[in-house]
Amino acid sequence: MNTLIGLVVIAIGSFGQSSSYVPINRVKNWSWESFWLVQGLFAWLVFPFVGAMIAIPGELSLGDVMFEDVASAFKAIGYGVLWGIGGLTFGLSMRYLGVALGQSLALGTCSAFGTLIPALLKGENLFSGDGLTLLIGVSIAIAGIAVIGYAGALKSRSLTDEERKKAVRDFALKKGLVIAVLAGVMSACFSLGLEAGAPIKRRLLELGANSLLALNPVIFLVTIGGFITNACYCLYQNYKNRTFTDYVSVKGGMLINNLLFCALAGLLWYSQFFGLGIGQSFFEQGSIMMAFSWSILMSLNVIFSNVWGIILKEWKGTGAKTIAVLVAGLLILIFSIIYPQL
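RE: above sequence
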């Protein structure tokens, strides 16, 4: 029963993350880099800070807890800087491929690296016992994502240039594929950052922190690193494209509109990791479900992102074969989530 509760909580957070890019369409008169920086301020600093604060027992300070183990803290931040490259290119992958295909390819790569590398670093044997179960589960997830990627390729071939531009304004398949794979590899560093910060989580639990929230300060450390990377790139793009005026040229109701939708995007994005931390607390420590939880989150993100892709009509105009392949990929992903419990 606890496992089911954990999966439901992770699924709720995943649905939030997969919905976080929908508010993009409601932000007006801002360049991509300006929007990305402002929503990142909420997604990677404001809400993770709030999440970290509510996890700290009343008599302690956030700084004391996070930097009691300085080495672990800076490792988490360092992985966050690397993950930030993935987060940056993640947004670009959806710009060029759309929500459904962009997230599918990036998250598939992220699922594999983010699940298997921590297991290898712990000395897990991936060819026997729980290690083999983990490897098979991840392989099933990758197979499902690959099938969805194939559906995206079929979709690309079936649409005219005009239809592609209508579904995804800046559609560019080759550029999008390269960026999506890079995004996935670097995004896996978030999982490595959480592993690096594990001693901080254990110390929090020793100090009496609620187990449901104990991962939040570690998440905040990783997102700090991610914000640094993204802020540097966005500010450079502001300089290059002369779009610094975005932040002051939009005023009144439109400024409020942009800030609110950026905040909404940031909150929805953060919900995936807030939910992951709570969901993991229902899994037995050291269990296969705990090790597989990253892959579960990524698989759910792919499933929900494709649901949004359908809602946003990104698959409109494709044939029955393409839709059948898409559905098959989604079913394989669902099976990959169930597999570790069989």
